[in-house]
Prior knowledge:
two-stranded antiparallel ribbon; Metallo-beta-lactamase, Chain A; 5 helices; five-stranded mixed sheet; 151 residues; 26% helix
Amino acid sequence: MPSNEFKFWMDESIFTKLPERQHGLPKRLQAMFPLLKDKLKQYEWDKEVIPGIRSIAAPGHTPGHTAFHVTSGNEQLMVLSDTTNMPALFAKHPDWHGVVDADPVLAEATRRKLFDRVVPDKALVTGYHFPFPAVGTIVPDGAGYTFVPAA
């Protein structure tokens, strides 16, 4: 788990920063993380987590939100995580701000940065909530982008 994400969720002051209706998740995480202390390993952004998988800073959805660049030989895959949880909307309109993003302006900047990174290489992408087949490419489309599912 990214160390800054861990610190964010475990900080007791999070309850003063979030509206009460959003306290459920941090309460569950603060109860669960200590139980996983022997299994949960923290890492820093922009480091190889395991051979062939590098963590990529992708803040906005949460302060420690992370994408992953996976490589095998000449092949690569960018796991966008929740950078664009609905590609039909947030790829086409990267300037739209989702209510689920902790920092919507930063989330938009991160979307654009990651999309601009994968477009020139025609790298495969996937994300946590992408529709089947859940892998494809990102291509420029006017002021936004389009997710093109793999054939």
